Amino acid sequence: MPEAPFASLEAALTIIGRTPTVLRGLVDALDAPVLEGGPTGGEGWGPRQVAEHLVDVEDIAFMDRVRRLVDAGVNGERPYIRSIDPPARLVEGGYAARTVENLLAELEQRRARDVAWLRSLPAGALDSEGEHDRAGIFAARDLIHYWACHDLLHLRQIVRGLQDTLAPFAGNLTVFFEEV
């Protein structure tokens, strides 16, 4: 495994911190059918469900786990982390009853606070390790990098879904899509 130099951690934290702004820029003021539609003809999550998911996993999949790792590392312990079921959590959490604006505002507020806390940690705090039921042993630093990749994966999912929604209306100009 490559060492994670400070620059890569800083890049990951920057991406994590900017995701809510990028997400808002992509989906703000879009009509409900576009927000609800998933990629590839309605399958998968649309922008709204991605926003719900990012709010939902902010604590349980990321901040709670980082805190557990950092706290356990002080005591020389390695906590055991269990997988979650994201689609089931969205239903159980009642996120569909909330507005997209409300979800985005919450994500922006929480991310600002969470990234500030992560940046405040002392050197070495993110070296603490845990064991995940599917991924095995990982460090808090690995989780931060995964978090950035997770955000980018979902932003890419939204971009692809929006492109798939708009492409049929581009007529013959879709021939230029192959050049990219």
Structural class: mainly alpha
The CATH homologous superfamily is named: dinb family like domain
Q: How many domains is the backbone divided into? A: 1
Query: Into which percentage range does the β-strand content fall?
Result: 5-15%
The profile of the biggest β sheet is: 3 strands, mixed
Cα separation of the termini: 32 Å
| Rg | 18 Å
Low-confidence blocks of residues = none
The tally of helices reads 7
**Average predicted local confidence, pLDDT:** 91
CATH architecture: Up-down Bundle
As for the CATH topology, it is Four Helix Bundle (Hemerythrin (Met), subunit A)
Number of strands: 3
Query: Helical percent range?
Result: 55-70%
Tell me the strand order in the biggest sheet.
1-2-3
In CATH's first tier, which class applies?
A: Mainly Alpha
Provide a descriptive summary of the structure in words.
Helix 1 runs parallel beside helix 7. The chain is built from seven helices and three strands. With 180 residues, it is mainly α. It is elongated and about 60 Å long. A three-stranded mixed beta sheet has the order 1-2-3. It has one domain: dinb family like domain (Four Helix Bundle (Hemerythrin (Met), subunit A), Up-down Bundle). It is 64% helix and 6% strand.
